[in-house]
Design goal:
The complex is a heterodimer of chains A (203) and B (780). Chain A is α+β, with helices and mostly antiparallel strands and 203 residues long. Chain A is built from 8 helices and 8 strands; from the N terminus they run E-H-H-E-E-E-H-E-H-H-H-H-E-E-E-H. In chain A, the strands form 2 sheets. In chain A, strands 1, 2, 3, 4, 5 and 8 form a 6-stranded antiparallel sheet that branches. In chain A, strand 3 and strand 4 form a beta hairpin. An 8-stranded parallel sheet of chain B has the order 1-10-7-6-5-4-3-2. Chain B has an 8-stranded parallel beta barrel with strand order 13-14-15-16-17-18-19-20, surrounded by 7 helices. In chain B, strands 22-21-23-24-25 form a 5-stranded parallel sheet, sandwiched between helices. In chain B, helix 9 runs parallel beside helix 10, helix 21 packs parallel to helix 23 and helix 23 packs antiparallel against helix 24. Classes of the chains: A alpha+beta (203), B alpha/beta (780). Chains A and B meet through strand 1, helix 2, strand 2, helix 4 and helix 5 of A and strand 9, helix 13, helix 14, helix 24 and helix 25 of B.
Chain lengths: 203, 780
């Protein structure tokens, strides 16, 4: 059955360093002004972020050219290679909510610096949220890094299939635009391989 | 008994979970449960009958996801017809059992947060509603809605069938919808839309929904529905399950019943056993009647504002009269400028914003809804839609994400005939001007009489006096010193009658010197007299102080955020390089005392900007620093330009058209490019995001722009970029094209036929410099 998750902003720690990295701040430490602005953006972001996610654990079957992840059939060499040695996988989607997108509309053109930082914070936040869910699902098992539609030859169109499988519209509110983009903007779909127990023992 | 009577008079029980019950019977993840209406009708019928046996009185058809985006036309229709027939068959021999056509979200987010147009959404919902209505269902249940605007689109479609409309939204752990609406905001929006009942479903268990139900009950007089999940799912072994037992569920539901919910049932994880326990637990309790006093409420997507308590300040500055920069922005369709003006008023303490876009050369019925959509998506304050054109009001009220103030209706029959049907259809609090066919009455008594006639006419449309805000009209004291006294006396009399009042303040000082002092004095008197709302300039600290005093302790002035930028030493160039916008503005103003504006721009601002730009290229400054410097430079430019002899020094030949291509809703990269190009003196026409190729080509041609910039983030929108470039090449071969965005590379840009791949924002600036160096003035 699909597991649903929700968390408040206080439960997900967003890394300032990670946010600055996404904003393109490179190796230099931020100036005092930038650090102040970042702090104010973090406060504003956490006032509107509302984390939601859904996950489903499935068996992996290898069938000729493709993979069957529970009810989902995928043809992707890169995903197959990534899941080598895994017999189960976690399919999941996660979002920081729709309100952070309003902040981008609010500041987009006139306060672009603020908008860029808020956008970067959103990216860092959804990553942190994904890590939190995945670690919750690990339960002592060894997990592979997340692999999302759009990586390598794992078709972006699989995003819609993953979301349908997770009843995402109902469980998380994540949907896909006509051009295949997820809304809210800061959303992720991914497959996480669970290493087969045998391999675990061999190590 | 009809369902309309039944929900008004007492407690009614919904059935429980459908999808999760079908999963227990073998429905696989990803399989569409609605198909079972055709594949396994016996199982659906059996589920309905089990719920009826458990005591459910309203059955939801198995049509939650049946919409034209998921199914082709034939299957869509067949699924709804079968779903309605199965539920009707189940209740056929039972008295007072009802069938609700179940409509869930479309699975696409509405613009501007998503890409689905509002009217497209209404049309899609209408297709489902019409098929269901033709099948003879008793009502329509719109459920699991996570976005307020999509909920409104569904309600407008459902209302066209004339069936009763029930609505439940899905709230998150933070007590809000996915896109930010609070329960109170939803209650105000939906009551304005005249739905029959509203509430919450899914997402949470009964215990977690208690605060939501309490907030809904306090905000609406309508019956409140609650269909929770069987608690929060918990991991048992390898899978997540809903753990609340039927008995525990029923016990928690009793608390929701006591909090005011009278339509009760279940959602995910609830079974006929849960509903049986629920009907057993609640039935013995006496039906509770809520006493709800009518209140004057307006809302945005995020907030509810009450009028008639502490006085409310409505910002007047989104009105082009006497504001050249706003006029220019409206003509250019620059909605970002409007958003910034709105934010400035919000920061100054305005609680609602008047929006007027009336300019003779612009089409108000097109522009007002556009402005309202842009503002309502980005600014959390409720809006006052201001137009003398009922067509413009209708278009804006239809798309507004909330319950607006509607400015205005008057005692003229023609005006009431045009505006009141809109208020009845879309919801709103109407500003009623106390004038009629004979003009503005000269005495307070006559103005009150006009108000009472307006109230009587409104009642014919089912509009309560709590949805009217009377404006007894402020006339200039310069014309007649008695004018202010007459208006104030009218406010007093209307207040005594228990009616809410509003005044535009600034007209009182028309034609006088030192208008602010006159306005402040008049405002103070009006507030003492009992005025509910004042339309004024919130950027006037004098007026805001008066408003704060008149409002008593509840009303606080916001702290001035500018104070944070304390006094420092340093030059204008340094302030720009460090990204201190406030400081740059102050220093620029000081420099202008001794230097010519052009000298300040060329000697201080541009060199600082260049230094930062070079720093970015040499990797000693990074993107955030570059953008902060750009904002500081912009602030300084703003001050310096005001001192320049004439505006319009930016020649048309320096025009650049920017757009994010069709299908792409990510525009941060394009915004970065626009901010920097503007800084370098280019006139940037930003067409926004998700822009069709024809719009880009049309604008480039109309503006004779020598350069166009296109942005695309994802591979899926590269074809749209290719199409846009091809169209530009065909119609505007002289125009150079630069492209940027995460998905692009030098090679891909060349393959698409672009002239330049701008790897970052400064690369765009450098290409623009190259293009415009080769454009002789006036030759394009």
């Amino acid at each position: 059955m699909i597991t649903r998750y929700q968390a408040s902003a206080a439960e997900v720690a967003v890394s300032s360093e990670q946010a600055l990295h996404y904003a393109g701040q490179g190796a230099l430490p931020p100036s005092r002004e930038l650090a102040d602005l970042l702090a104010s953006c973090l406060v504003e972001f956490s006032g509107v972020a509302a984390y939601r996610a859904a996950a489903l654990e499935v068996e992996i079957m290898r069938t000729g050219a493709g993979l069957t992840l529970g009810p989902l059939y995928v043809e992707s060499k890169d995903l197959s290679a990534h899941l080598e040695g895994c017999d189960r996988a976690i399919l999941f989607c996660a979002t920081v909510g729709g309100e952070p997108d309003r902040l981008l509309l609010r500041y987009g053109r006139q306060q672009t610096g603020r908008a860029v930082l808020l956008d970067a914070i959103g990216s860092a936040a959804v990553e942190a949220w994904c890590d939190k869910i995945v670690s919750n699902l690990a339960k002592g098992r060894i997990l592979r890094p997340r692999f999302s539609p759009g990586y390598g030859d794992f078709a972006l169109s699989c995003q819609g299939d993953l979301l349908a499988l997770l009843s995402a519209a109902q469980t998380t509110g994540i949907s896909v635009t006509a051009a295949g983009m997820m809304t809210p903007q800061k959303s992720v779909t991914a497959v996480v391989g669970i290493q087969a127990a045998m391999i675990e023992e061999r190590r | 008994m009809t369902i309309r009577d039944a929900i008004k008079t007492g407690t009614l029980f919904f059935d429980g979970g459908c999808g999760t019950s079908l999963q227990a019977q073998g429905l696989r993840p990803g399989e569409l449960p609605e198909r079972w209406n055709l594949q396994y009708p016996d199982r659906i019928l059996a589920l309905h009958r089990a719920y009826l046996a458990a005591g459910a009185q309203i059955l939801k058809t198995n049509t939650f996801g049946a919409n034209p985006l998921k199914f082709d036309k034939t299957e869509h229709k067949a699924i709804i017809q079968a779903g309605a027939a199965l539920a009707k068959q189940a209740v056929a021999d039972c008295a007072d059992r009802f069938v609700a056509l179940d409509i869930g979200p479309l699975g696409r987010l509405l613009a501007p947060l998503g890409d689905l147009g509002f009217e497209d959404a209404v049309t899609l919902f209408a297709q489902t509603a019409e098929i269901g209505a033709a099948c003879g269902v008793d009502c329509i249940l719109i459920e699991t809605m996570m976005d307020s605007l999509e909920t409104k689109a569904a309600v407008l479609a459902a209302k066209e069938t004339n069936l009763p409309v029930l609505v439940t939204n899905t709230y998150g752990a933070d007590g809000k919808l996915l896109t930010g609406a609070t329960p109170a905001a939803m209650a105000v929006l939906l009551e304005g839309l005249r739905v029959d009942a509203l509430g919450a479903n899914c997402g949470l268990g009964p215990k977690q929904l208690l605060p939501v139900v309490q907030e809904l009950s306090g905000a609406t007089a309508l019956p409140v529905i609650v269909n929770p999940n069987a608690g929060l799912p918990q991991m048992v072994g390898d899978s997540a399950v809903f753990v609340l037992s039927p008995e525990a569920f029923a016990a928690e539901m009793a608390a929701l019943f006591r909090a005011g919910a009278t339509l009760l049932g279940g959602c995910c994880g609830t079974t006929p056993a849960h509903i049986a326990a629920l009907t057993k637990a609640i039935s013995p309790l006496a039906s509770l009647s809520r006493i709800v006093t009518p209140r004057t409420l307006v809302s945005s997507y995020a907030q509810v504002l009450e009028l008639g308590k502490a006085p409310v300040v409505i910002g007047e500055r989104l009105n082009p009269t006497g504001k050249p920069r706003l006029k220019e922005a409206l003509r250019a369709g620059d909605m970002d400028f409007l958003v910034q003006e709105a934010l400035a008023q919000q920061n100054a303490g305005a609680q609602a914003l008047d929006v007027n876009v009336g300019l003779p050369e612009l089409d108000e019925p097109t522009l007002l809804p556009r402005a309202v959509t842009a503002l309502a998506a980005a600014v959390p304050l409720p809006l006052q839609l201001d137009s003398g054109d009922p067509k413009a009001l209708a278009a804006a009220m239809r798309v507004y994400n909330g319950k607006p103030l509607v400015n205005s209706v008057s005692g003229k029959q023609e005006s009431m005939d045009a505006v009141f049907p809109l208020v009845a259809q879309y919801g709103g609090v109407a500003v009623a001007l106390t004038l009629d066919e004979k003009g503005i009455p000269e005495t307070a008594e006559e103005r009150v009489n006009v108000a009472l006639r307006i109230r009587a006419e409104a009642m014919r449309y089912g509009i309560a006096e709590s949805d009217l805000l009377f404006d007894p009209l402020t006339l200039p004291v310069a014309v007649d010193p008695q004018n202010a006294e007459i208006t104030l006396e009218a406010v007093r009399r209307l207040t005594v009658l228990g009616l809410r009042t509003i005044l535009g303040i600034s007209n009182v000082s028309f034609g006088l010197p030192d208008r602010e002092t006159v306005n402040a004095g008049f405002l103070a008197r009006a507030l003492e007299t009992g005025l509910s709302a004042a339309i004024l300039n919130p950027l006037s600290s004098t007026l805001m102080e008066v408003a704060a005093r008149g409002g008593g302790a509840e009303y606080k002035l916001p702290e001035l955020s500018q104070a944070a930028e304390h006094e420092e030493t340093g030059s204008l160039s340094q302030a720009i390089e460090r990204g201190l916008a406030g400081r740059a503005e102050t220093l620029c103003r000081a420099l202008l005392e001794t230097e010519a504006p052009i000298a300040v721009i060329e000697g201080h601002i541009i060199p600082a900007l260049d230094a930062v730009g070079r720093g970015f290229e040499n990797k000693t400054v990074y993107l955030p620093g570059l953008l902060l410097a750009a904002e500081a430079a912009k602030a300084a430019f703003g001050v310096a330009r005001k001192k320049l002899p004439s505006v319009g020094e930016q020649s048309a030949a320096k025009t650049i058209v920017l757009a994010t291509v069709r299908g792409d809703i990510h525009d941060i990269g394009k915004n970065i490019a626009a901010a920097l190009l503007e800084n370098y003196g280019y006139r940037v026409l930003d067409l926004g995001r998700d822009v069709p190729p024809e719009t880009v080509a049309g604008r480039v041609l109309a503006e004779r722009a020598p350069l166009a910039g296109l942005s695309a983030l994802m591979t899926t929108t590269v074809p749209a970029m290719r199409e846009t470039i091809a169209l530009l090449r065909k119609h505007a071969p002289q125009t150079r094209i630069m492209v940027g965005g995460a998905v692009l590379t030098e090679a891909l840009a060349a393959m698409l036929g672009a002239d330049c791949y701008a790897a970052d924002a400064m690369a765009g600036v450098r290409f623009a410099e190259q293009v415009f160096a080769n454009v002789p003035r006036g030759t394009f």
